[in-house]
Write a structure and sequence with these properties.
Blueprint lengths: L2 H6 L5 H13 L4 H8 L3 H13 L3 E6 L2 E6 L3 H25 L7 E6 H11 L7 E4 L2 H4 L3 H17 L4 E6 L2 H8 L6 E6 L8 E6 L2 E6 L6 E6 L1 H17 L2
Parallel strand pairs: 4-5, 5-6
Antiparallel strand pairs: 1-2, 3-9, 4-7, 7-8, 8-9
Helix pairs in contact: 2-3, 2-4, 3-4, 6-8
Length: 246
């Protein structure tokens, strides 16, 4: 990630970032020089630089009939972020009120990559409630960047918090080894036919949430759906399987 891309993560758009960097590097300069340095049309620079002036990231310095421009010190960016955080803090009560207008609207959050899936697993431990799970053990074990963390950290934390897990898994040699650790890892595992039910994701049902995780390299992602109705439907499905397998 280059410098202008990093600036974009702070809230500037692509052209604003390029213009600010060009101005910072040039020092006191003209629109023409900034446009050339940033490789942006001068007419566009005129428009965008006004936004940067409003944000106090560029200062206008008149000299005779001409206007010169000077980029603010980089520390000004920190003040800009602090101001945005303060504005967000003030808006939060109104935003949260809007999110609660419809009591039946499910909340859906998407996560990507290994760290994203870890966030999904961590969410299952927030409420200290029993977890009902459909687990494709063979698939999860193929995710090398995840399995060590699951075995050494997640399972340990879940066990320490006394959050019991009821796991339904396709039968396999890996699943049988997994089941042997049930007592130690605070869960009960029951098997379904791997041939008849060859699912490859993991589903966790907990509190009023359903978490779905895919471990395939090209589709490493997780989704959390927060909805009482959806969670209860998945809970009923889990109960059906749980009562018909051992």
């Amino acid at each position: 990630m280059n410098l202008d891309e990093k600036l974009q993560t702070l809230g500037l758009n692509e052209k604003e970032a390029k213009i600010y960097l060009a101005s910072l590097e040039l020092g006191l300069t003209t629109i023409q020089n900034i446009a050339k340095k940033a490789d942006i049309k001068r007419s566009t620079v005129y428009e965008i630089i006004e936004n940067l002036i409003t944000q106090n990231l560029i200062t206008v310095i008149p000299k005779g009939k001409k206007r010169y421009f000077l980029a603010a010190e980089p520390s000004k960016l920190q003040e800009l972020i602090a101001q945005k955080q303060e504005n967000l803090k003030k808006m939060l009560p109104e935003l949260e009120a809007l999110s609660k207008v419809s009591p039946i609207k499910p909340k859906i959050r998407f996560y990507e990559g290994v760290e994203g899936i870890k966030s999904v697993y961590n969410d299952t431990l927030k409420d200290n409630e029993e977890i009902l799970a459909f687990v494709s053990i063979a698939t999860a074990y193929k995710s090398k960047g995840l399995i060590d963390w699951l075995l050494k950290q997640y399972v340990t934390r879940r066990s320490e918090k006394k959050i019991f897990a009821k796991v339904i898994a396709p039968d396999s040699n890996l699943a049988k080894n997994y089941k042997q650790r049930d007592q130690k890892e605070y869960r009960e595992t029951r098997f379904i036919s791997e041939k008849e039910y060859p699912f490859s994701i993991e589903i966790n049902i907990y509190n009023n949430k359903v978490a779905l995780m895919s471990f395939k390299k090209e589709e490493l992602m997780g989704v959390i759906i927060e909805s009482k109705e959806i969670a209860n439907t998945f809970r009923t499905m889990h109960k059906f399987f749980w009562n018909h397998v051992k």
